[in-house]
Amino acid sequence: MTAISAKNLRKTYGEVRALDGLSVAVDRGELYGFLGPNGAGKTTTMEILTGQLRPDAGHLEVLGTDPSMEPVATRERVGILPEQLSPPSFLTPREYFDFVGRVRDLDEMTVRDRVATWADRLGYAGTLDTLCADLSRGQQQKVMVTQAFLHEPAAVFIDEPLANLDPIVQERVKRALREYAAADNAVFVSTHNVEVAQDICTRVGIVSDGRIVAERAAEAFAEDSLLDVFLETVETADPADSAGQTATSDSDSASSPPGGA
């Protein structure tokens, strides 16, 4: 069953074409890797799919709703982890999760149980009552990973999930993402890290100049490594097209709200 669907998305910022007819579909049970260099259109796509930004054209459906027409309803149903987003510095993780639980209409016992599970899984149970301002960047990332899954959404959008995490915690997060997708949920991971996409995703789409230029199941990269395909597809993208689509080398971060890749 398709959980995330986008067809022929287009988005411009002035003379910059951030998205140029991008189409992507993700089924429940998939851990989809959205792989591309900086400025490829990854953040713009994520923001459109989660109802934070309206496309200029295209058709959208996420868990049965159109994010461009029902942005609030979409954000209520999905989990979102933007890149480099931190928890409120004046709250402890426990206080922050209580707030998230109220926003997500979860009862206190459910929040407590789910927080305990994720804190144990990611190894930060001992810091639940420490101010977020006093946590390391890696510990803050664990908190933000947890909030994205706290309401157990059927679709989760994550930008650079392993940022600032040590190798041990990276493996724990990878395992958690695989298990979550396998439980009939859709996990959409945006990254410029080839190793992350190769290691955890069931299917990978390579985005360049605002469109998908290659897509295949992860196991299909057995003979041709994902890195080789990534470099080949990005380097051979039509220069005439890219000149019009990416007026800067980092169109996402220049044209969208902070936290993009």
TrEMBL record:
Pfam families: ABC_tran. PROSITE patterns: ABC_TRANSPORTER_2. The keyword RNA-binding does not apply. Residues 4-234 form the ABC transporter domain. Residues 238-261 are annotated as: Disordered. Residues 240-261 have a biased composition (Low complexity). InterPro entries: AAA+_ATPase, ABC_transporter-like_ATP-bd, ABC_Transporter_VariousFunc, P-loop_NTPase. It comes from the Archaea. One of its GO terms (molecular function) is ATP hydrolysis activity. Keywords: ATP-binding, Nucleotide-binding, Transport. The keyword rRNA processing does not apply. This is ABC-2 type transport system ATP-binding protein.
